[in-house]
Amino acid sequence: MSGNIQLNISIGDQTKILVVSADCTIDHVLEEIQRKFIPTIEANQLEVLHAGTIISYGSERRLVALEITHASSLTVVMGLKGGQFKGPRPDGQYTKRVSFTCDKKIRCIVSLDNDEMHPRAIMPCGHHITSESMVEHCLYEISKKQNRITCPECSKPWDWTTVEQVAKFKDDEKIKIQNSLSENFLMKSRGYFPCPGCKIWCTRTDKSMTIIIVKRILWIAVLPYSLANHKRLI
């Protein structure tokens, strides 16, 4: 893969456009986010969510290995002192290419379509779905505030890269669904909080410290953690 790709970077209630090389590492992306958009924070304090999966600084993995492609959406999370929730992280394995079938005996689990003009993808769980139904199903899942896409038949989770291969999203669909999955993950997970001023999502990285909100930007550790200090600060 070569050339540049455009990424949609969600920082609080703003979306920024970042153009990077398709061959660059996730560390380079985080460094560019820090340099261009959040210069008061070190790059190694940043994480991003891609379709509900956390990616941290320091992995030195390339975007292609993380299946981050043109028009992907990344939600920025700042790591600040105070304790951290461990959410799902990428395993670094390439997703196998999805196979499709036109066998009229096999129907889509959503639309029941078996038309040869609408091939059905063979999903990892063994069920089958058309590209059109996958888009419809993803929109339904995010409307229910889900933070991952699951099979409507057996409820087994489908990894994002498989979903993307099957759905063949338009750019606006991809942005909407990825952002919604990440936001739903953050809303459901303990340990992630939006700054009430700038709205940037934050997580805490040192359990020994209590934090308070200062002005508009972020939380700063001020006292060793104790129940008395915690009550006094809140």
From TrEMBL:
Gene3D superfamilies: Zinc/RING finger domain, C3HC4 (zinc finger) (3.30.40.10). InterPro entries: Znf_RING/FYVE/PHD. This is Ubiquitin-like domain-containing protein. It comes from Helobdella robusta.
